[in-house]
Please model this.
Amino acid sequence: MQIKSVQPHVSFPFASAVVHGGLVYVSGQVGFRPGTTELAGEDLKAQLLQTTANIEAALKAAGSDKRFILKCNIYLKHVERDFAEMNVYYAEWLGTHRPARSTVEANMAMPAILIEIDCIAAVSGESA
Model:
């Protein structure tokens, strides 16, 4: 069994992504600016754009990219308020690619965090 881990910020006790069996498991990403625990902004759009950029960086480091995402789980602090707006930016981010997805309301680790996304993707060039 071969497992490859991609480490996030040194203070976090988890990997940002783990590769195993041709799949990349990306840990929950939020809108932190790279290498910090500072949010990209206070609004959903800023946080979602940074969150998706963080996912892309984790996927790239693990040998994949967003075209190979199979499943996303989206956690919104205010699902009723933010679902429609999230859908617009999420669809723009993925273009015509449509992975499976779940969206739920959740309390976040910090009060200012509005969105968190985790995903599973195939390693580029491999079939899952």
Remarks:
- Residues 75 and 104 are 5 Å apart (CA to CA).
